[in-house]
Automatic annotation (TrEMBL):
GO terms for molecular function: acyl-CoA oxidase activity; FAD binding; fatty acid binding. Its cofactor is FAD. This is Acyl-coenzyme A oxidase. The keyword Nucleus does not apply. Belongs to the acyl-CoA oxidase family. It comes from Paramecium pentaurelia. It catalyses: a 2,3-saturated acyl-CoA + O2 = a (2E)-enoyl-CoA + H2O2.
Amino acid sequence: MLEAERKQGQFPQLEMSHLLYGGKEYFDKFLERQNFFDNHPMFKVNHDFYNKSRQDQILLNAERTIEAFKTIQLADPNYYTPNVLCPQGIFISTVHFAMVIPAFQVLASDEQISKWMTLLKNLNAFGCYAQTELGHGSDVQNLQTVAVFDKQTSEFVIHTPNIEATKFWPGELGLYCEFALVFAQLQVDGKGYGVHPFWIRIRDKETHKPLSGIEIGDIGPKMGYSVKDNGFMSFDHFRAPLDSLLNRYIKVSRDGKVERQGNPKVGYGSMMYMRNILCDQYTKFGGRALTIAIRYSLYRKQFKDDNKQEIRILDYQCQQQKLFPLLAEFYACVFGSVKIKELVNDNFNRISQQNDFSLLGLTHAVLSGAKANYTYFVANCAEWCRLSCGGHGFAHYSGLPVIFFEMSPNITLEGENTILNLQLARYLLKQLQHIVSKPNAVPEFFKFLSQETVKVDDVTSLDNLIALLGLNCAILTKYAAQKLMSHSDMKESWDTKSGIALAKAASTFIPYFNMLCFLDTINNKAKDTKTILTVLARIYGISMLLNNMQGLLLKNQLNSQQIKTLQDTRESLYPIIRLNALSLVEAQGLSDNSLQSLIAPKEGDVYMNMYNFASKENSLNKQQVHNGISYIQKMREVNAKL
């Protein structure tokens, strides 16, 4: 049914695939690993998975992790995408490889790395990242777990002083890990030295039971990540050895002398690594949702035209309005994530190899905004894709609910999105000051803050869309700055008077950044895909302006005719995307097994797929007469007595 759709694509799909994955090498590696998941019997998608209990899902996921570990390097960050995108569920080692090991690389001394790194990589030291507590998450500096140095024994006494200080939410803590990277307030001789990481064995090597003085468990079911054992942990004056403190940047001698060295902000390094994964890898779940929704919209026909032929629902303009701006945004976020990955890796290497922190502020700011923007996009995209598929979108067999459930927590974890936007806002204000005091120090991405106005003839050209998006952010940043400065108490003003304006300003930066990356891809990387990418970029830029043009309206930078032009132009571009929609989503190279959807196969009868699952594979139908029928009779008996 879809072959004719594929033939009308107007660009070389393989070139687009290489752009989406950052090059031929990465796309080929994706296909190689996807092929492993497609052909291994344990990784064949089981649509009855959601009828299983959580405990059975967890055990099945553990078996799958073992099988994957036999064949592929789960720890290799260069080829991480298929490890999270293709399998059903998420491997039990994800946090260990994505957070614990990077933290070690940044925070541990050379001696500690030599002692532990091999053990970490082969899982002989399997750990979790225990930072978040019941009472504090984003506010890391006010964590309440304490690590008090005991001079008599040269040990740290790790203690949970109250319920709020209980470690809560770390993945792989509830059931599996033997070690934990515990973040606690270091205290020596009654003096506090801030939050630092301690590498601690928390379970017995032989029995796997919690060590004396430690209480551990799983926190229970939650929205998404059903197979992940997010856990809780509390300490009762637990004693940890002197070398448990990761000590590249702070050391405590046996007699209690504290020596600091390097930049205290180094702890951001490992958190940036995980946020980069959320931007670089998990953004592709938006593409998976779009593949399902667009394919289904081509299979699905509703209502007849004048020739009595049923119409594919993707031919309806309203359906295109739901999906095509999201498709353009997906491409924008992917191209933005490629640049962010380069920035994060450069910063990470400078810190770990040269003790160079010159890119830390820029990287932290851009990554904070991108994590907030991209994770929200993926959850929002999954929801709109689900809604665009009508009733079948609600069913797990569509493959869409699981994307929404699994991706929604990312809005909160590893930095709550509002907090991250405020962190970007702080950097925007700093650069706004530099525009006046030391303009040469302003990074290229932030030079737009000097703009006061722009004059454009065609508001829909790429260059003018970028200029307008930058001006919109600049105006809102200056507005937020004025609001912040209008109160004498800056802290109170930030917290209670100007937070909305600050977060709003920050939220408009990433669309501008994405457009710069989109244009860079078109000009410097694309060849025969330039034309279709330019159409997508225009749809993205127009959509971002129409969604949020508050700054431009405040300064009368857009009039009603220009707004109408933006709307009309976007609609005029939809027919081009309609011809190429299937090719644009299939450029991701996702197999049917990776899509995990019965309503969007590469070829086949979607209705027969759904019927066969309901009638033959749904385990609830294995009994011809279900045991629950006895309760119907009991209900009748109760009713008879009323």
